[in-house]
Amino acid sequence: MGKMExxxxxxxxxxxxxxxxxNFKIIENKNRLxxxxxxxxxxxxxxxxxxxxxxxxxxxxxxxxxxxxxxIKHLKDLESSEEKEKYxxxxxxxxxxxxxxxxxxxxxxMMPQTGNLQNTKRGIGNDRIDTFIYVIENYYDGIDNLxxxxxxxxxxxxxxxxxxxxxxxxxxxxxxxxxxxxxVDELIESGKNPIDTPERVIQYMNLAYxxxxxxxxxxxxxxxxxxxxxxxxxxxxxxxxxxx
Length: 244
What we know:
It is built from eleven helices and six strands. By secondary structure, it is mainly alpha-helical. β3 (about 40) and β4 form a beta hairpin. α4 runs parallel beside α10, α9 runs antiparallel to α10 and α10 (about 200-220) packs antiparallel against α11. It is globular.
């Protein structure tokens, strides 16, 4: 199942309900689900915005190809054949798991379409979530406005209103991704730097692993979920158990 199919699948909508049940109203109209286009948090509500599903960590074919090619190049720079074998074995196992988890309940979230935020994530950091979170941190710290780079002048105010709902990048990540502050700090640090060595590729995948573990823990905190969601969560858990 590809992104277009997964983002509108029944399991995706159940995922959004669990992630954002207190933030959005998800309405069923003639058997078609849609989100009421306002976002609420702690008594505050935005104006009308357009939202859509977003893949968190991107390991799609084009991205995977570029990472594989870069990894092979870095391996050639290693002098020891033992080192090459060690890195390749670790990389291959983890990358295969990352590819399998890309379209899963622990790797999707909601993002405003208003303000072109999805293109900001793709354009600034080659669709790297760590770089995206780093850019969000810079916005809250008043360092720069890269977060608004892909927004039209008329939509910037809508986007600013949305980010005023959160006090910091950490609160944004806690609300949207359900991850803790320690992981946010590590994602920010990672997002400052290129992925240009075997160690960095593996570090990025390890961040994805921790991100998915924390989201899985969030979902496991619900007493009642559908049978299909239980099956999805079990699949995720089985894959994550194979990480090490």
